[in-house]
Amino acid sequence: MVRGRPNILITGTPGTGKTTMASALAEATQLRHVNIGDLVKEKNLHDGWDEEFDCHVINEDLVCDELEDMMEGGGVIVDYHGCDFFPERWFDRVVVLQTDNSILYDRLSKRGYTGSKLSNNIECEIFQVLLEEAKESYPESIVVAMKSNSIDDITRNVADLVVWVSSWSHRTSQNDNMCD
């Protein structure tokens, strides 16, 4: 079954602007925004707390079970810093946000990140770990890297994705009409 509206994954290192961009895109496209971190907290989809990284240890199976029906229906923007555990069939576009390290360092420091949590996230960005993870987990044709250093970048990214959503929806409706 073809979805009537696309599903989009917005991923990237913490601090790259995923939630800000996903919220703005959801507002502009009327797609549903699901922040996985919030979902994990609300529905207790975790296996406890990681003291070193000061975060929940998410239970990926529980998260996927929770999202399955929603994703099949389409029209969802998922926002999370990981991407390799989501089923490939769920997404029509995977956006990897990237931020210059000096900007990212400042953003994460302001959030209170210190020690290994801070250095691991900066290293993750330097080595483009999430971009590689996305390219290994999804067809490269649906993976796109976008700069996210400023509000202007986010505005431009949202505008580009609004055009993409519109053209995806238009293509899908044309294909439906051909089958009639």
From TrEMBL:
Q: Where does ATP bind?
A: G15, G17, K18, T19, T20, R111
Gene3D superfamilies cross-referenced by the UniProt entry:
P-loop containing nucleotide triphosphate hydrolases
Assigned EC number: 2.7.4.3
Q: Which UniProt keywords apply?
A: ATP-binding, Cytoplasm, Kinase, Nucleotide-binding, Nucleus, Ribosome biogenesis, rRNA processing, Transferase
Q: Where in the cell is it found?
A: Cytoplasm; Nucleus
* A Pfam family hit: AAA_18
Primary localization: cytoplasm
Q: Name one GO biological process term.
A: ribosomal small subunit biogenesis
Alphabetized GO MF terms: AMP kinase activity; ATP binding; ATP hydrolysis activity
Q: Which family does it belong to?
A: Belongs to the adenylate kinase family. AK6 subfamily.
Q: What does this protein do?
A: Broad-specificity nucleoside monophosphate (NMP) kinase that catalyzes the reversible transfer of the terminal phosphate group between nucleoside triphosphates and monophosphates. Has also ATPase activity. Involved in the late cytoplasmic maturation steps of the 40S ribosomal particles, specifically 18S rRNA maturation. While NMP activity is not required for ribosome maturation, ATPase activity is. Associates transiently with small ribosomal subunit protein uS11. ATP hydrolysis breaks the interaction with uS11.
Quaternary organization: Interacts with small ribosomal subunit protein uS11. Not a structural component of 43S pre-ribosomes, but transiently interacts with them by binding to uS11.
> What name does UniProt use for this protein?
Adenylate kinase isoenzyme 6 homolog
